[in-house]
Amino acid sequence: MSAASMSLCSRVLAILVFSSVGRAQEPPKTYACIKAKKPVHIDGKLNDPAWKLAPWTTDFVDIEGAVKPLPRFRTRAKILWDENYLYIAAELEEPEVKATLTQHDAVIFHDNDFEVFLKPPGDAPGYFEFEINALNTSWDLYLNKPYREGGKADNSWDIPGLKTAVKVQGTLNRAGDTDRGWTVEMALPWSAFASRLPVEAPHVGSEWRINFSRVEWKQGQPKEDNWVWSPQGLVNMHVPDRWGYLRFVGKP
């Protein structure tokens, strides 16, 4: 069977997968990632000319998909790549931007946060996770396999050469006013993954698995909201087979 046929079969199977409560799983989304002509300047403002070529993702939805109400606030992202970096930009609508965690590798989702999940091609079950809050505090970790399969989180994995920046459209940690939200930019070097998996920089035609998550806490409620780009069908981000597809392309 050709690689193209195998890819098609895997997507058809994804459509037919059922969630734990018997609902048909929504098919994973696909993002065509354009190659940047020049390195992207990371300052959190999303005004680098390269971003004009990159399309926005669809707005995030509840992690369980269409069976749940739409999120209260809009979230969307853009992605670019070149030989050295994967570039990610995100825009998070938020009327009260707040964050408290300042220590690297703290459990960032205890704050409102933005999260990236990445799995390179190949048979290895391992994958990477990155979380960031509005204070630009981050948590990077590697999992050798999903938790439900006995996977262990490796917090010792760091991202040498990582670039991140956050810009708040409003006032951080000030109650009583109304903010517009916050934006985040990051550049993840391909070389950083190789310490855990034999990852090479992609080429035109490569395809990775990716998903984004936003954790949003609502005052007075003990349970957080989980909003994602490609719905998981269940409240668990650690199911890489349900992530979206990141397809690397050249020109727009």
What this model shows, in words?
This protein has 252 residues and is mostly beta strands. The protein has one domain: Immunoglobulin-like (Sandwich), CATH 2.60.40. It has one helix at 3-16; strands at residues 30-35, 61-62, 75-81, 85-93, 113-119, 127-132, 138-143, 153-154, 163-169, 181-189, 207-216, 225-228, 244-248. Strands 1, 2, 3, 4, 5, 6, 7, 8, 9, 10, 11, 12 and 13 form a 13-stranded mixed β-sheet that branches. Strand 11 (207-216) and strand 12 form a beta hairpin. The longest helix has 14 residues, at 3-16. It is globular.
Set out the fold topology:
Layout: H1 3-16, E1 30-35, E2 61-62, E3 75-81, E4 85-93, E5 113-119, E6 127-132, E7 138-143, E8 153-154, E9 163-169, E10 181-189, E11 207-216, E12 225-228, E13 244-248
Parallel strand pairs: 1-3, 1-13
Antiparallel strand pairs: 2-12, 3-4, 4-10, 5-6, 5-11, 6-7, 7-8, 9-10, 11-12, 11-13
What attributes does this structure have?
13-stranded mixed β-sheet, 1 helix, mainly beta, 252 residues
- The CATH architecture name reads Sandwich
What is the chains' assembly state?
single chain
The ordered H/E elements are HEEEEEEEEEEEEE
Number of helices: 1
Described by strand count, sense and barrel closure, the largest sheet is: 13 strands, mixed
Over all CA atoms, what is the radius of gyration?
18 Å
Helix content: under 10%
Name the overall outline: globular
CATH topology: the name is Immunoglobulin-like
The averaged pLDDT comes out at: 91
Beta-strand content bin: 25-35%
Low-confidence runs: 1-22
Report how far apart the termini are. 30 Å
* DSSP strand count: 13
The domain tally reads: 1
Structural class comes to mainly beta
CATH first level: Mainly Beta
